[in-house]
């Protein structure tokens, strides 16, 4: 009975058990196998009966075959079994099949100790090890992808994680709009097909570059697998890539590289996050002979989904950073160009809605224009703010006064879609755009301002007293009848202007203290810097949760003293040109300027005064300003604006402005209440220190 039972057990093990069982003789030749084992279909080892263990190991590409053979011979000699040897086996058929097995080896011997051979029990652990590897890869992706808010860096991190763990080569192509913070169109027919390579990684090595290279643009050809995946937004598994596939064209660089590399399997996954199509991730196998399968496709989709969230975070950051740059108006550049007139500080408290902006624009005569605006709906796009700022900068370059700038902006905003769709939509829906325009002259200390629905700025005097600048507020841009009265006020040196939007101060309440009282308290004590005062004031004034982006701009005025400016009034007579020339030469020599600068400026002054004598009737004023550049201004009572023209060789006049344009960096005409001022700027070869009236003011 016992013998019958033993025979039945052996028969079941070798004909019914799913466990792989191999029997080897003392020479390690295969003599019997379990034909019912799960691995027999993919790895028909029964066909190798009589072959030696080394031959079988080589036949199935077993990793580290020499170590396996040494372990088997050790068991045969010592009798000590080996447990849980992890092996990877591969069938060389096309397509290749790979499996992971756990092997335990025992010595077979009779009761008297005679050694008969070895028995090897094989357990297929492919599914378990693959699941563990997938979990490790997903965990690694969660840690390593998205460490920055840069699209290219995020794409590179994704490629580094995926290759070679899942694919021999992986690429990331994103729509060009993504790099500018914009969302590509949802409809494939409306979407710009231009993509840019953002990430690439190959198992061939870090020095290998893809086609196209990272940073290069390309358009996926219609009808290709790439374009189809993006248009349909459906991931695509190409288990076996045929070289004669109709969509492959060896003439195209990408396809030629694909064919030359010997890629035999690929996966294409559209990169999508928050309903936005960002680009395409491509996975290729050319070194690993095992083709991708459905499980690989699922893993690729999970990895791409995580990377898509990180890439979209980078896109949104780029968009918000662009909005912040628009809001600040290139603040670093503004500080450098207007520092002689005002000291600037700003604080921006974003609420994620946008809508507010401010800028500092250098003007002729060392003046500065401080402009600020707000879309009270908080929904204006950066593009609309850019158009408004661009229009203001262009109008300010014409040296128009603030009220005239606002009148022209009002006319532009009244035209449908002239200042951007978002701004036009705000105006139509009753959520107007406001604007404050203020010009400060550090020579005369005069501040002129006009407002289109924007809060009037506050003034902090050098002694700490706070008051509101009396600016008559006109209608918002594009609404009502344009009427923007101009306010003029002479400010002492060291006065601080506070320019803000209504989101910062909120709506006035009967229970809280008035704004001026709060400002008096905030500026009662001196601060270590203007920026520190700006930050403290903004955070104290702002509500706990602003409804939209809030900002505060502080501008502390400077004053040019007599050592840096000279003014002469000349009679309207022919000899005034020579007199102006002599006084200019003497003054520039006193300032210690280079002889070349003196000679060029004297010639320019002589030509401009001669023009005023010819076309004006009243007295002529000559003003020289020593700033980071040398400014000369000629003011007369003629409203006629001169124009640059090229005089013929036979002409006796008409060369004054041509000479001015050749000898100066820029020139222009500024309208005055009566007459005009023609100005010109000449660069210097040395830096002029910024000066303020005696006495260091408090913030």
Automatic annotation (TrEMBL):
Lineage: Bacteria, Bacillati, Actinomycetota, Actinomycetes, Kitasatosporales
Residue ranges constituting the PAS domain according to the UniProt record: 8-73
Domain PPM-type phosphatase: 339-557
Domain of life assignment: Bacteria
Species annotation: Streptacidiphilus jiangxiensis
GO molecular function: phosphatase activity
Alphabetical list of SUPFAM superfamilies matching this protein: ATPase domain of HSP90 chaperone/DNA topoisomerase II/histidine kinase, GAF domain-like, PYP-like sensor domain (PAS domain)
Annotated GAF domain residues: 133-321
Protein name listed in UniProt: Sodium/proline symporter
Gene3D superfamilies linked to this entry: 3.30.450.40, Histidine kinase-like ATPase, C-terminal domain (3.30.565.10), PAS domain (3.30.450.20), PPM-type phosphatase domain (3.60.40.10)
Record keywords, A-Z: Hydrolase
UniProt KW Hydrolase keyword: yes
Matches recorded under CDD domains: HATPase_RsbW-like, PAS
Keyword Kinase among UniProt keywords: no
